[in-house]
Specification:
It is a single chain. Helix content is about 60%, strand content about 10%. With about 550 residues, the chain is α/β, with parallel strands linked by helices. Helix 23 links the parallel strand 2 and strand 3. The radius of gyration is 32 Å and the shape is elongated.
Length: about 550
């Protein structure tokens, strides 16, 4: 597995981590209702709201005394006694809202969600603006996983007392559960204004920002939470997740280790630490942590590809094979695991899976240019430019198609040979993330998100014919090139040129290498070119890139339509 492929796979892994990061949210902590510390404080003002206020003299005093006794019972955890007392009072004072309220609290404490709901609904039917009852109904809706209903209750309670911190925390938590992260973040920002010294609010705000892809801002909030409460272990784990998303793996490792000291069975923390260790080339340690996490979460069978990948990099091919196979036993369509297994076992397939290519390049898009040019010494665009200069074109090109053009690095060079007034350069790539970067940098006149074989077969896309078709470092993901050659031939005009690069295969055909990339022999290219109707202008040996200090052998091929 070369460095470029490893980097792409790490991006894929971090994407999966972000998708499962909801398990790290501290929302339930902030949103859960504490056991009532003083239930009497939750009672209505009898003079204003209660039916008991209509009673006179001794009767009113007696009811107040009875309600206080029930409150004391609840405060001391005697929910059974409180319920018996409520039932006796209900016989004397039917439909009394205060009694229903205390009964609801008792049922809530006993986790009898159905009866608790009935009691608080009875309270609301008499007093629609009772915020305490609305908050309890919201909590009950959460317990029943009726999140939209919970949101409605908390919003109603918030209209009654707009600045109530407990209500706002509950609403923000529900919004997180409903994936309304921007709204949740807005509320947490409001809460921090009310209580800037709450570590849990900073933690929850950080999580909402993280899910909104505001990673740097999330890091700031997690660090604020840790500063306020150095023992808030979950904040360290969430900080590790965020730092990993910024590729600050060393700092992420430290954060994960700190959090896992107190939470050694935190599954997502273990997975996160494993991914960061692997990115730091600590392959065996990474595999050990993946195994620990999978022991705790055996249902996470998709992650077995990551265990296998780590073991393979550590030199344990048998262990890697077993993990890939276990992943595929549970997920037969898992393209990453299948491709990695094929490359490990030397099974030459016709092409890499489409979704494998698409996902990897989508996640790699933002850092693609920098990594290829500055880290991998990627020189293919310059080589293609030199080849065109060698061919000595009669006139500037008016129509160019860049297959698998990605972010448009090849187009930057090829534009030198394109008619500035009327020429067009089209780019097609399977990865929408790559195309987005190309569009942002104005590297093509028009772009298409498509499989290149399907694009070539569909004459309704782009121009019907082009003067030049390019494919730089593209066929490393396609073994059998016959369909591509036939498609290119049909989309080229008379005497049209087809320029591309391949990695050099040791066989006489094409092979899937242990790197996960395809390589093609000179013989294979020549025979397929002749079969498809091309004239071979040249096949030159090149070094398209490096993997570390190792130069990768390849060919630059120039064909012309006869």
């Amino acid at each position: 597995m070369n460095r470029k492929e490893r980097r792409r796979l790490e991006k894929e892994a971090k994407k999966q981590a972000k998708q499962t990061a909801s398990t790290n949210a501290s929302g339930p902590v902030a949103a859960s209702r504490d056991e009532p510390k003083n239930v009497s404080n939750l009672l209505f003002d009898h003079a204003m709201n209660s039916a008991s206020a209509q009673k006179e003299g001794a009767l009113t005093q007696q009811l107040d005394w009875e309600l206080q006794q029930i409150s004391d019972q609840l405060n001391n955890g005697f929910t059974g006694d409180a319920l018996k007392s409520c039932q006796k009072l209900d016989d004397l004072y039917p439909n009394n809202a205060d009694i229903q309220h205390l009964s609801g609290i008792a049922y809530f404490m006993n986790q009898d969600w159905v009866r608790a709901t009935q009691c608080f609904e009875a309270v609301i039917s008499q007093h629609p603006n009772n915020d305490q009852a609305l908050n309890y109904l919201g909590d009950l809706a959460i317990e029943k996983n009726e999140l939209n209903q919970a949101e409605d209750y908390f919003r109603r309670a918030g209209k009654i007392i707009p600045e109530d911190q407990a209500t706002l925390q509950r609403l923000a938590y529900v919004l997180q559960r409903l994936e309304k992260m921007e709204e949740a973040a807005k509320i947490y920002r409001q809460l921090i204004g009310q209580d800037p010294n709450s570590a849990e609010i900073h933690l929850n705000y950080g999580y909402a920002l993280f899910k909104c892809d505001q990673i740097s801002e999330a890091v700031t909030e997690y660090r604020a939470a840790i500063k306020l409460d150095p023992n808030l272990s979950l904040a360290y784990i969430n900080l590790g997740m965020a730092l990993s998303g910024l590729d600050e793996d060393e700092d992420a490792i430290n954060a994960f280790r700190h959090g896992l000291d107190a939470l050694p069975k935190h599954v997502e923390g273990l997975f996160g630490l494993a991914r960061c260790l692997r990115a730091q080339d600590e392959y065996q340690k990474a595999a050990d942590y993946f195994q620990k996490a999978l022991n705790l979460a055996p249902d996470r069978t998709q992650v077995y590809w990551e265990l296998g990948y780590s073991l393979e990099l550590a030199g344990d091919k048998a262990g890697g094979q077993a993990a890939y196979e276990k992943c595929l036993n549970h997920h037969p369509d898992h393209s990453v695991a299948q491709h990695l297994l094929d490359s490990l076992m030397g099974n030459t397939t016709e092409t890499a899976p489409q979704d494998y290519i698409q996902e990897l390049f989508d996640d790699y898009a933002d850092s693609f240019d920098d990594n290829l040019v500055n880290e991998l010494n990627y020189v293919v665009p310059g080589l293609l430019n030199t080849e065109l200069e060698t061919l000595k074109l009669d006139q500037p090109l008016r129509s160019v198609l860049d297959l698998g053009g990605g972010t448009g690095l090849v187009a930057v060079e090829i534009n030198k040979h394109v008619d500035s007034a009327s020429g067009v350069v089209h780019g097609v790539d399977l990865s929408s993330g790559m195309i987005d970067i190309a569009v942002q940098n104005n590297r093509y006149h028009e772009t298409f998100v498509s499989d290149i074989g399907e694009f070539l077969d569909d004459v309704g896309q782009g121009l019907s014919q082009y003067e030049l078709i390019l494919a730089g470092d593209v066929f490393v993901y396609i073994g059998n090139l016959e369909q591509i050659f036939n498609g290119v031939y049909q989309r080229l005009g008379k005497n049209g040129l087809f320029l591309f690069t391949v990695e050099q295969s040791p066989s006489e055909n094409y092979t899937l290498q242990s790197t996960g990339r395809f390589a093609h022999s000179k013989t294979y290219v020549e025979e397929l070119a002749n079969k498809s109707g091309f004239e071979v202008l040249s096949i030159r040996k090149i070094i398209p890139r490096k993997d570390g200090d190792t130069e990768i052998d390849g060919y630059l091929v120039s064909l012309q339509k006869r």
